[in-house]
Amino acid sequence: MASTLSILSFCSLLVLALVLVQSTHSAIIPEPKNSIAKHTPHPSSSHLTYIVQTNHLAKPSKFTTLDHWYTSMVPTTSSRILYTYGTVIHGFAVRLTDGEARRMSAVPGVTRVYKDRVYHTQTTRSPWFMGLHDDFGAWPDTDFGDGIIIGIVDTGIWPKRASFNDTGLGPVRATWRGKCVDAEGFNATLLCNNKLVGAKSFTVNLPVLECDDPSPRDHMGHGTHVASTAAGAEVPVKLHALGCVG
Ligand SMILES: *[C@@H]1O[C@H](CO)[C@@H](O)[C@H](O)[C@H]1NC(C)=O
Ligand SMILES: *[C@@H]1O[C@H](CO)[C@@H](O)[C@H](O)[C@H]1NC(C)=O
Q1: What superfamily in CATH does domain 38-115 come from?
Q2: pLDDT per residue over 210-241, tens digit each?
Q3: What is the pLDDT of residues 133-144, one digit of tens each?
Q4: Which of 16, 62, 180, 218 is least buried, going by the fewest C-beta atoms within 10 A?
């Protein structure tokens, strides 16, 4: 079972690196990214962000707009309204203390008050979402992409990732014409294998665009992410590592 991946890397569409990878299993690993910025506590750390959902039809007529109504609800000790919502739900976000939130939920016209939560995107559920399964469907039906070479034009590749482990893969087929090309910081002999079967940087040296990296090594992460999604080896998910996937 082996599919093969080829990647082209780019920087502002000017740097191109060709990377070619071969795989036993489509596998998806989380990309560690910066966590989403949180609101700084204000006016004090006992304040948290709450979403106040309202029944907009219950707005008392003395308020000309929903904004006036919402402003009237916010305790003067509290911070300003952070956002107002008027499409999917009606309401607003505001920083409140526990007690203020409880009192807010009793205000006529307020249907619900709940704490804001930060959600992180994760790729670990993509196979389930797409209906992919080891034992039936598209994956086993295609022998996990056996023999397919995938070429990607992207920001390059970080070859040491577990996704590009070639354990169990035979050599790339003899008709393969691509190359893994040595470059500064990229020893093709060491870094390419039967999974990553080709890598090449196509650089237009325009210093003003800072696009003069002659190596297919990926310093942005996008190409690595795309390559491992398309033809990465199966990598066990480390749940503790999922905390700040963004
Ligand atoms: C590649 O995968 C095999 C099988 O899971 C494992 O034994 C090996 O240590 C891995 N190699 C690297 C360099 O991580
Ligand atoms: C790449 O690594 C191999 C094995 O360590 C070494 O023999 C070779 O000289 C290196 N190539 C370059 C261009 O540094």
Answers
A1: Peptidase S8 propeptide/proteinase inhibitor I9 (3.30.70.80)
A2: 555 678 998 888 999 999 989 998 887 665 54
A3: 889 998 899 888
A4: 62
